[in-house]
Amino acid sequence: MFFVLFFSVLLGYLIVRQYQKVSRLPPGPISLPLIGNLPQIIYYLWSTGGIVSTLDLFRKRYGNIFTLWVGPIPHVSIADYETSHEVFVKNAGKYADKFHAPVMRDVRNDIGVLITNGDHWQEMRRFSLQAFRNMGVGKDIMETRIMEELDARCSDIDKLATNGVTITHASEFFDLTVGSIINSILVGKRFEEDTKHEFLKIKETMDASFETFSPFDMTAPVWFLKTFFKHRYDKIWSAQETAKNFAAAEAIKRVESIKSGKYVIDENNLQDYTDAFLLKIQKEGESKDFNIETLKTMIIDLWMTGQETTTTTLISGFNQLLLHPEVMIKAREEILKITENGSRHLSLTDRTSTPYVNAVIGEIQRHASILNVSFWKINKEFTYMGGHPVDAGALVTSQLSALHVNETVFKNPQEFNPERFIRDGKLLQKVIPFGVGKRNCLGESLAKAELYLIFGNLLLRYKFEQHGKLSTTELMPYSAGKRPFKLEMKFVKI
Ligand code: HEM
């Protein structure tokens, strides 16, 4: 009798407390103490077939700002541009701290730029943005690097052609192109015959570990994973370690060469990110933030973020172009006109004169929307967002996947239709694939340059035809990020 009474009182107390907490948050489905909305989330993940469709369903029911309780923690998703801008740009300083998957913090040892907060994150981010700027990201020098890499890959494709036609795995082509660009920016090396197979193998291992990386892995405590899901933990850890050692191997060789006097950093002609980092150490000495271990971690952070994202977008884009050949033809016509019938390559300076190509890339990025679940930021004090109260301790994010399929902003969101951006010139601003605010994408300028130059110049050089199946559905609808599928296509030389 006593226990029944005790548990009834406890339950009553927890329900009242939950009710009070809910009143200090944006609307959402009815939540229970401790387990929150897990039953509804699991049910809708199963019945709608994925994370994005589940988030979209909750947005339609509860509005552009809604709360889902993942266990005892409220997660607030913002699914429109205006509120995202108001929260993360106008109040940027308040949302610099991300919630990091405990397993990734453990793997990264709380260093680097991707999975850190506070002073160390700020130092790493500031330094990297400056180093990228000094290396000409967004300017002519970077265009030259990207075009040299694309030329080399196209020449490989052309060597394999029979009657001007090469059938190839698009993922391998883009992995090598994008991988080489970031690798050469970071450690001054592109992937050639001798290194490309090892690179592709490591990418495959990382892809396999990402594929199993679900929202569960993002939230589960490390001890829990290590005890009950050791296999999952080991897989994530070893994929990250292998990739880090591979990506940073050149930098470590350079450290040795500097020690033995075989390599001297030329301050006036820095070759890459590693030169910039080592120069800082040479001038100021090793510190808590700048040392060889942080260099290795920065290389893997930038290496990882600089590849998967861009390759996934390129593959998703070519898949869309093959599904919509009329879009491909219209984009090519615009590129031919601006480059005087292909007498020169398409350059970044052409961007203002190619509204249709810009619209196509915008529509590709809206569809590709590479994160199924965006990174969560920590709300540290009670505030209002879009007129709703948001309690301290809630996690908030601009939920990009839901935002990009919001039909009140993008009519018929499932349709691939670049014309929507031609009809409404301001709509393109509302596509925010790189996120907003202090933690937005550090490589945005580089990625934009890559997408424009690679899409544009490939369309100028080749016609693309379907070979095998195209994808019309999401490959991994339950993983935290979108995964590219193995697209095969024909490159037909023009
Ligand atoms: C199409 C390509 C890309 C897309 C769509 C993309 C998208 C994103 C998104 C959505 C975020 C999270 C933003 C947030 O939490 O608000 C992010 C973060 C980041 N991106 Fe990218 N990205 C791309 C390419 C790149 C490239 C080429 C690099 C590097 C060279 C890069 C480096 C990073 C880094 C380091 C972060 C974490 C920044 C921080 O936490 O301070 N990204 N990216």
From TrEMBL:
<dbReference type="Pfam" id="PF00067">
    <property type="entry name" value="p450"/>
</dbReference>
<dbReference type="GO" id="GO:0005737">
    <property type="term" value="C:cytoplasm"/>
</dbReference>
<dbReference type="GO" id="GO:0005506">
    <property type="term" value="F:iron ion binding"/>
</dbReference>
<dbReference type="GO" id="GO:0016712">
    <property type="term" value="F:oxidoreductase activity, acting on paired donors, with incorporation or reduction of molecular oxygen, reduced flavin or flavoprotein as one donor, and incorporation of one atom of oxygen"/>
</dbReference>
<dbReference type="InterPro" id="IPR001128">
    <property type="entry name" value="Cyt_P450"/>
</dbReference>
<feature type="binding site" description="axial binding residue">
    <location>
        <position position="441"/>
    </location>
    <ligand>
        <name>heme</name>
    </ligand>
</feature>
<dbReference type="InterPro" id="IPR002401">
    <property type="entry name" value="Cyt_P450_E_grp-I"/>
</dbReference>
<keyword id="KW-0349">Heme</keyword>
<keyword id="KW-0479">Metal-binding</keyword>
<dbReference type="InterPro" id="IPR050182">
    <property type="entry name" value="Cytochrome_P450_fam2"/>
</dbReference>
<keyword id="KW-0560">Oxidoreductase</keyword>
<dbReference type="InterPro" id="IPR036396">
    <property type="entry name" value="Cyt_P450_sf"/>
</dbReference>
<dbReference type="GO" id="GO:0006082">
    <property type="term" value="P:organic acid metabolic process"/>
</dbReference>
<dbReference type="InterPro" id="IPR017972">
    <property type="entry name" value="Cyt_P450_CS"/>
</dbReference>
<keyword id="KW-0408">Iron</keyword>
<keyword id="KW-0503">Monooxygenase</keyword>
<comment type="similarity">
    <text>Belongs to the cytochrome P450 family.</text>
</comment>
<protein>
    <submittedName>
        <fullName>CYtochrome P450 family</fullName>
    </submittedName>
</protein>
<dbReference type="GO" id="GO:0009410">
    <property type="term" value="P:response to xenobiotic stimulus"/>
</dbReference>
<dbReference type="GO" id="GO:0006805">
    <property type="term" value="P:xenobiotic metabolic process"/>
</dbReference>
<dbReference type="GO" id="GO:0020037">
    <property type="term" value="F:heme binding"/>
</dbReference>
